[in-house]
Amino acid sequence: MAFQITPYPEWSWSHSRDHLFQECPRRYYYHYYGSHNGWLRDASEEQREAYRLKQMANLFLIFGDALHQVADMYIRQWQSKSHLFSYTELHTKVRNMMNQAVLESKNVEQWMEAPKKRKMLVEWYYYNQLPKRIVEMIKERMETCLTNLLDSESLQEITTDPRVEILEMEKLNTIYVRGEKVYVKLDVLYRIGDRYIIADWKTGQEDDSIEEQLYLYAYYLHRELAVPLEQIEIRTEYLLPGECKKTYVTQANLEQVEEKIISSTTEMKSYLQDPVQNQPLARLDFEGAASSRSCMYCNYRQLCELKDRTLSDATDEATQADVG
Questions:
Q1: What CATH number does domain 153-269 carry, 3.65.10.10, 3.90.320.10, 2.40.100.10, 3.40.50.360?
Q2: What is the pLDDT of residue 308?
């Protein structure tokens, strides 16, 4: 089907979309609506700007994405060539990705010409510097997370058990939950006999709030691929502490995730002027985050009227989002 230009984006739901909405409805507006069609030649200046700002990422997100890339690279290299990258090789790859992001961020004009093709760090764009404490923290995390990635139960199993069959890696899937279009993306899904294992890499601290995301993974396997619940094992590989948390899902959990999606969808759609077209209310109808800490490293600071709220309580921890 040919790509069609529409006045408003297509409606869909995802765990990350819900997370952004809960954190800050105003940021949610810019991300999904204000930036829509910002790549077109006849787009308004605000659309263009929102589209550019949407492409930025903070240091923690760039780092999390780099870890996911090398995990994916590691498994694919093993699959295709039966060769395993060393710790030093992976460390060099991650360091190069981080350095490239910093280098590209220093040329704002080139980034503005091709925001999808070049990196721009939020810290550099707004403050023209990288917080030393965060840089040092990421250097430490790089060593710890890479070591724990190589030692993780899932990666060890994938590369040592000849029965392992990789089914999916970083694939964006579409499912429907009570008529709502939902996106699901698994880091890696593999099978050993009649066991289906989902491994999810996390580069941040342990977080109980991700349970709904895990239930959604199981929902996808059970409802779309007809895998019995008792054969599904979800592993959250927390690379910072080096711990593997295993989750087994019940039918009640699937009903729970359904209810979550419907309640979240209902709340999001209350901000729509026309639900059929997915036309949003006016920008000012989307209130800002409850905490001003969210403003400090928000992509859309320069567009948002709320950016000048007091940031006296803001700290660098506001950037510690986990790319998941």
A1: 3.90.320.10
A2: 67
